[in-house]
Fold this protein.
Amino acid sequence: MDWFSAIVAFSVAAALLTITPGLDTALVLRTATVEGGRQAMKTGAGVVTGVLAWGLLASLGLGAVLTVSEIGYRILQYAGAAYLVWLGARMLASALRKQVPGYGEAARAEAHYDTEQASTLWFWRGLMTNLLNPKVGVFYVSFLPQFIPCDAPVVAVSVTLAGIHAVMGLAWFAALAAATKPFSRLFRHPMFIRGVDGAVGSVLIAFGVRLALEERG
């Protein structure tokens, strides 16, 4: 496989993977509807940073540890499951409160975070959601090598392909954030915010429990 064919083939596969609904999409959509597009893009930036990190780890061979080490895989699996349950529980708790943060500045004031701290918070939430998923690591270890041309520099090609995936992810998250903007007035309603937090929180908890109980494939 030559460079051009590798990039085209990977781009098609990465595009399909990017638009497939999953935890990352749910987290970005929740942030866009409840806290606005800027915070959503911070979350998306965290997610794609995780993608770049997995691409680098896979190229260095460190990600392969997950495929051969049962203990390493389980540690990451349970840590990821605990994190998802914790994050989902926080959203459910927010949904059940009588007074909920509003849209924009009120949302950013939650837990006494100022605007910059809230942005950092959502960046880390996106990053940790991606990094603490062992399935992503195993996927990159098994997926990337298929698109690396013979005799090509493995690290450079892997990081380049992960970069393509990251750019696609940012573009997709930007499109999601833009799609929510016309409905921002509806999203300001406290009952809508509580409904979104309740739904997404339940999804995160369900994914966390499923991840904890899932047998290694």
Q: What stands out?
A: Residues 3-213 form one domain. The CA atoms of residues 56 and 159 lie 6 Å apart.
